[in-house]
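Re: [ENG-882] Designed sequences occasionally contain unexpected residues at chain ends

Forwarding the minimal case from QA. Structure tokens:
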């Protein structure tokens, strides 16, 4: 926008009179302890180990707090004869829960939905074009469900693929986040 002759050019200046939000937590709320013993700003303790299953091409074991997961990777191996020819490899993902993973027997999350989400998370990171007519199988088993299972499964599966030597663009890391501000507004 052109300025009128003889007038000072207009410039943008931010409005410094911002409304401040009230604090979500009061000073004495910072001492709050979660049911698992963590403080307000503490993450769950994490542990990873590769090579957990000897019979697999690659495997990994992960713990995030009370969530324990083991993932095995098999392949790349030749696709079955019934499969159509493909210039790029195939990725099969399967997530299962042990019967004792949750406090109530047999109440694990929807396995098919988690399997689909694991597939979506990993397929963009794997160089599928490096093994045409071949399949990589990823089997995840949740040994103990302590909350936030899917991010642990995705991160562990990524390490297992790297342990198997599968060509990848990069590792996949996953987390789950809760907006405390949104929760505070609801209450």
């Amino acid at each position: 926008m052109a300025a009128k002759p003889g007038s000072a050019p207009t410039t943008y200046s931010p409005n410094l009179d911002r409304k401040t939000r009230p604090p979500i937590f009061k000073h004495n709320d910072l001492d709050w302890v979660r049911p698992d013993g963590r403080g307000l700003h503490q993450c769950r303790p994490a542990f990873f180990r590769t090579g957990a299953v000897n019979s697999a091409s690659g495997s990994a074991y992960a713990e995030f707090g009370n969530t324990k997961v083991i993932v095995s990777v098999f392949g790349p191996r030749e696709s079955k004869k019934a499969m159509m020819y493909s210039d790029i490899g195939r990725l099969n993902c399967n997530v299962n829960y042990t019967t004792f993973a949750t406090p109530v027997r047999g109440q694990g999350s929807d396995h098919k939905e988690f399997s689909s989400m694991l597939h979506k998370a990993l397929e963009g990171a794997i160089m599928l074009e490096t093994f045409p007519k071949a399949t990589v199988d990823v089997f995840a088993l949740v040994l103990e469900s302590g909350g936030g299972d899917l991010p642990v499964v995705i991160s562990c599966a990524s390490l297992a693929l790297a342990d198997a030597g599968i060509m990848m663009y990069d590792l996949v890391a996953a987390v789950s986040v809760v907006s405390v501000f949104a929760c505070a507004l609801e209450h």
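QA comment: On inspection the terminal residues look reasonable. The chain is about 20% helix and 25% strand. Proposing we downgrade this to a documentation issue.
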